[in-house]
């Protein structure tokens, strides 16, 4: 509702501004070019965020100083703390980093963003920046026209820098022209009221432009041309710092609980820093004067003094908040919790990660494992098996004779609660991510899509099997009960083997281990068929029961096949692109059938021949 | 000058091929080693385990690994042959 009013209002103000003032035209064009430059740079940096990203992250965020340095460097390079915080949220949602590391990056990003003020105040206003913009953009466009995605990425960054410079130039020109026409300092306010009002203006401007950097650049250029007083510019800078959290908050709306916690930490940090800066404005200004005189900044160079102030209060914020990181983590984990799970929802997917191929692929992989974990429980309970028995040391053959202990479960209802939302989100996410990802991710996404569809198919097979199992696994007839318990044992045995697979390290070895499970499953299926034939021949079961056993045997086989496909696809998704070894060494279906059928009793001698 | 450049490009391409082969051979060796260890473990388990069902199961697992190793050795040989050519 608010958005419906705000956007037309902004458009109307702009149209009015364009009609009445040429200078306003230039300033607005400057802001637009500046923001477009930031978008181009974002586009460029995304190209470099794949592949080795995770390794770099792991190596550069394992200690607090490292994650802070990562935040400083990445924000200095990208010139956008908002972008860094949104990317950090996506890292956190995909569990690539922990909350404390994420907070470290955010603190670092706040320091990194201060470099922007230095660049604009120290360089942008002192030289004719547009003279650099043109050649940079020409080189950028030439790079954009190349085939290599990395060269294109560099092209986007150069074009972005060019537009940033051009934007600063237009803003500077616009404010200079304004200075000749009207005196905006007439609206200047002094004292506490001035501080509070201009802080609020800074917050609003940043929320509208979604960029503290843009607010700061406008403030600096306006200050350079004397359109804002130094005192009010300081308040605008404080406001920009608080307002910048809005991007992180918007990014966290679609993120999981960990992303929300990080956005909370970001808000807390910037609010505390803002309040401290407002309360301590006088001592800070004295410090700014002293630092300026030490480093040789002229007493009337207010733009550079603003940069000093901006750095100083962010540094103060970091110094104050660093000892608070652990209590902050505890507080956020205590007060921001996942809603009690009426319906299980995706944990690792976030819109922010969609545009970062490595993060998106990691997120959907983890979400698929999450889905499989839920399905694992549903399959166990659907077959009246307890998860702890399946993955524990219990001898599964103990289940053979005893009537199955019933586990109350409504599979239809549990499907809606534990599977449906995650499955739908995964399929949608995979479709979107696959469209945006480079071609080398295609195999991984196809495998994950297959894993998701087969997880759902395995639950459907469980539902079919459960219909008769509920009666016959508790049948007073031992023969019938045993056969149905054998179905349960077969599935439990496969589930146990799959759970054990997680302990193997290498993905290729894990994939090859699936062949062993396939042999065992095929062997068990063949024996089940042979046993039903035997029971019919011996007259131990009626023909109706025989057909039930044959049908339910098929459901069991289907269920196991789906589970194996899921395990295969999930493991395959972790293989490096172009890996063919698992294909070369895995056994063909004929080999698996041969081993399953030809080794009864003869395995020992057969094996020794090869030693 | 042009010929020199062409030769350099060609040698770069050839180096890329060799590097890829080296990676594949290294990975293959690691996998074969892991399988050999698994097979030895299973063999040891087979010696100690009682009961037909368990013995049969382990024997089949050993047979799967044996065949996979055989295929792996074939791949290794074909890479070596290709290199010699």
Automatic annotation (TrEMBL), chain A:
Q: Does the keyword Membrane apply?
A: yes
Membrane topology of the entry: Multi-pass membrane protein
List locations, semicolon-separated. Answer: Cell membrane
Q: Does the keyword Transmembrane helix apply?
A: yes
What's a GO biological-process term for it? sodium-dependent phosphate transport
Write out the GO cellular component annotations: plasma membrane
Tell me the keywords, alphabetical order. Answer: Cell membrane, Membrane, Transmembrane, Transmembrane helix
What InterPro entries does this protein map onto? Answer: Na/Pi_transpt (IPR003841)
Pfam families, per the entry: Na_Pi_cotrans
- Transmembrane spans: 83-109, 129-146, 153-172, 184-207, 236-255, 267-286, 306-325
Listed GO molecular functions?
A: sodium:phosphate symporter activity
Would you tell me the protein name for this molecule? Na/Pi cotransporter family protein
Q: Which organism is it from?
A: Pseudohalioglobus lutimaris
Automatic annotation (TrEMBL), chain B:
Is-annotated flag, keyword Coiled coil? Answer: yes
Out of the domains of life, which is the source?
A: Bacteria
Q: Does the keyword Coiled coil apply?
A: yes
Q: Which UniProt keywords apply?
A: Coiled coil
Query: Which parts form a coiled-coil structure per UniProt?
Result: 25-52
Q: Under what name is this protein listed? A: Uncharacterized protein
- Provide the species name: Pseudohalioglobus lutimaris
